[in-house]
């Protein structure tokens, strides 16, 4: 055992320790214990080295999604005594940061008896097929901020692919999309009788929005529910 551990120590800058332990059939904990006894490292450092190897293994097994709490829980379940704080420190030293899944917010909520408009674009979103201001598309997305959710409505000119109107708010009422389209209209981004294409979200089928479009000469067009920029 001592000879194998000495070989691993000598070659640690050439090959990964975990790989050499596996090839030589030496338990990693035994190797690190040997290092501590041999005075190569302190007992504390040897323990940290053992934990780093196990943390790297768990992090890889979890495909980079495990944070310090989940890693610490698994370490303790496997018999390694490690606090969340210690695991967090070691993960920082190893530059390991868990991938955070994006929180989901539903922005398209169709009303059962809402107004429905046909697809005036015929699923054609090719910029070259339209003149500037002739065909506009709109949608709502969301942003997480320190003060909570913020909703963003945008209006895009299909011909130029440029955002020509936008508005943010802490709500998803019809006024959010009306304000975004009004920006596009007042700044000269919309042609006369421009097509405005959206999904079937309640904001776009509301009486307020339908009346706004009618008063200002916009021709409403809709794709499938939840799909505004429908390309196929």
From TrEMBL:
Identify one Pfam family in the record. rve
**What protein does this entry describe?**
IS3 family transposase
GO-annotated biological processes: DNA integration
Query: Function of this protein?
Result: Involved in the transposition of the insertion sequence.
Per UniProt, residues of the Integrase catalytic domain are 123-232
Q: Name one GO molecular function term.
A: nucleic acid binding
């Amino acid at each position: 055992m001592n000879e194998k551990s000495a070989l691993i120590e000598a070659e640690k800058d050439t090959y990964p320790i975990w790989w050499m332990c596996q090839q030589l059939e030496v338990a990693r904990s035994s190797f690190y214990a040997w290092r501590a006894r041999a005075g190569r490292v302190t007992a504390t450092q040897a323990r940290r080295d053992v934990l780093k190897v196990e943390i790297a293994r768990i992090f890889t097994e979890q495909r980079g999604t495990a944070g310090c709490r989940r890693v610490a829980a698994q370490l303790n379940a496997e018999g390694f005594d490690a606090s969340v704080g210690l695991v967090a420190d070691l993960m920082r030293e190893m530059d390991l940061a868990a991938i955070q899944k994006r929180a989901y917010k539903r922005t398209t909520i169709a009303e059962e008896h809402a107004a429905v408009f046909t697809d005036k674009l015929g699923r054609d979103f090719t910029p070259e097929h339209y003149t500037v201001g002739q065909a506009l598309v709109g949608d709502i997305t969301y942003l997480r901020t320190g003060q909570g959710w913020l909703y963003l409505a945008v209006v895009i000119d299909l011909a130029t692919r440029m955002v020509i109107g936008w508005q943010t708010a802490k709500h998803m009422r019809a006024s959010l999309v009306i304000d975004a389209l009004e920006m596009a209209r007042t700044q000269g981004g919309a042609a006369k009788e421009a097509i405005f294409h959206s999904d079937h979200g309640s904001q776009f089928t509301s009486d307020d929005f339908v009346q706004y479009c009618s008063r200002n000469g916009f021709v409403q067009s809709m794709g499938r529910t939840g799909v505004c920029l429908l390309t196929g």
